[in-house]
Amino acid sequence: MAGGGEDRKTGKLSRPALLVDEVMRAIREMIVEGRVLPGERLSENALAAELGVSTTPVREAIALLRRQGLVTVQPQSGTYVFELQAGELNQLCELRFALEPAAVQLALENPDTPLADELVGIVEDMKKAQAEGRVRDYLALDTAFHDAIIAASGNPYFTSAYALIGAKMAALRNRLGSDPHHMEKSMREHVEIAEAIRARNLELAARILVRHIARKEGSYWEHLDPENSARMERTALSTTIHSK
Known about the structure:
Elements: H1 20-32, E1 41-42, H2 44-51, H3 55-67, E2 71-74, E3 78-81, H4 88-108, H5 115-131, H6 135-152, H7 156-176, H8 180-198, H9 202-216, H10 218-224, H11 228-238
Antiparallel strand pairs: 1-3, 2-3
Helix pairs in contact: 1-3, 2-3, 4-6, 4-7, 4-9, 5-6, 5-8, 6-7, 8-9, 9-11
C-alpha cells in the first residue's frame, strides 16, 4: 500500500486464519476512517502482511468492497480507494431522499417503534462528542443516526438498498464533515429530526430530514458542485411525503 506510515497501520489481526468478512471490515474501516486516501493504490500483498493473512481473503474482501463502491479495480493497474465521480454525490443524495423519509413513515406506522428513543440517545452522545472535540466519534454517531432510521423501517430491502451507499457516505463524512460550521448545523438538525419523530410529526420530520440531507451535504457540494445543493433541496422538498 503506497505511503503506508506506521500511524496508518491496522496491525496484525488476532487470528492467522481470518474470515473474509473480518478482512473486509478491517479494510473498510481503513477507508472509512481515512487511513488510506482517495485514489490511493491498495496492494493486496501489503494488506495481507498488515493483517497477518494470505492474499486470498484480501482478494475476496476487495471484491466485496468493490460492490459497496469503496474501491475501484482497474485492469492491468490495480485496486484504488474510491474517488467521487462527476454527478455521483447528486445520485447518492437522491437515493437518501427516496429512502430516509419513507423509512421514517414506515417506522411511525408502528405505534411501538423505539426509533424516537434511539435517536434521542444518539443525539445526546453526539452532543457530548461535539463538546469534547471528539470529531471522529461525532461523525460515527452521525452515521449511526441515519442507520437507525433505515433499520426502523423494518423493511430489509430498505436496509439492502442503503447498504449500497452507507459505507461511502460514512467515508465522505470523515473526509469532509469535520468543519465546525458544518458540524454545528448538522448537530442542530439532528436534534430537530429526533424531536419531530418523538412528536410523531411525520410531515415535519420528513421536511427537516430532506433539508438536512441537502444542507448537511452542503459542505461536500462546496468542494464538488456548489450550484447543486439548492437545486437538490428544492427538488426533494417538492416530493416530500406528507402525513396521512
